């Protein structure tokens, strides 16, 4: 079962989280099996993004969707992970070219070109006129050198957006997507993200020591060891306060109703044209692979006002 573990280092301004996505991650990949399967490096990237998205959503406790995107002009045009407040996640990618075996972030997205990372916070109950918050950082560091992996990109983002030191270790294969997050706490509580936090960047000895320990975690250990074993191996000398684990899960928000509304937005003439050309309308969800089929009768009902539709047949008991 997928689990997210939160913990604090007693007496130190440091918090941490460890996530292991197992059954939900395998279900997500199973929905894109066969010809629809992504190349192995893309699956690894999406797994790391899913783990990172769950960690970031749990870290900020945001009542809305957190959408993590990386995009560029390489063979992977776009990769997306979306995490809802209850820690349900889904991912998708747009692959437009050949991704070679073992390709890293730089090769997949052409970091030297238009590579960017965007994190969008979309409130669940958005007010009229309210726009989602979005932060964008390049896929290279302050010296224009390409960042080597997603962990470095997100560490750079957190440092710029919150002025908080963050250490991320991410790994994924076809069985598990996992991540460890270590973060320095704000100086005077969560509400203070000002100058004093900037002054502490890179200087807090307790955080630096914990982050160094976290950096010794190998991808193999992260993917194969349970949470208790990982935390004990890394921090056995520390006084940890651990909380009850949460259960992230794969869940897609697509539905026939949402697809129907999309078709209505296209208009009757265009949808009828598709029916005439192909015999039916087929819409697939990019996230989960679910296929929605609409024949001529379905389309007719779609564009018929409810008051004009015949009543449902009575059920005789």
Structure description:
With 317 residues, the chain is of the alpha+beta class. The protein folds into two domains: 3-250, Hsp33 domain; 256-308, CBS domain Like (Alpha-Beta Complex). The protein contains eleven helices and 13 strands. Strands 7-6-3-4-5-11 form a six-stranded mixed beta sheet, covered by helices on one side. It has a five-stranded antiparallel beta sheet with strand order 8-9-2-1-10, with helices on both faces. The longest helix is centred in the first third of the chain and has 21 residues, at 40-60. It is elongated, with a radius of gyration of 23 Å. Residues 189-195 and 312-317 have low confidence and may be disordered.
Give a quick summary of the entry:
This protein has 317 residues and is an alpha+beta fold. The protein has helices at 23-30, 40-60, 105-109, 150-162, 195-200, 205-215, 219-224, 227-235, 256-266, 268-278, 296-302; strands at residues 3-9, 14-21, 64-71, 76-83, 88-95, 116-123, 133-138, 166-172, 177-184, 240-242, 249-250, 281-284, 291-294.
Count all strands and give the number: 13
CATH H-level homologous superfamily name of the largest domain: Hsp33 domain
Q: Distance between termini?
A: 43 Å
Beta content comes to: 25-35%
Descriptive key words:
317 residues, alpha+beta, Hsp33 domain, CBS domain Like, 2 domains, six-stranded mixed sheet, five-stranded antiparallel sheet, elongated, disordered C terminus
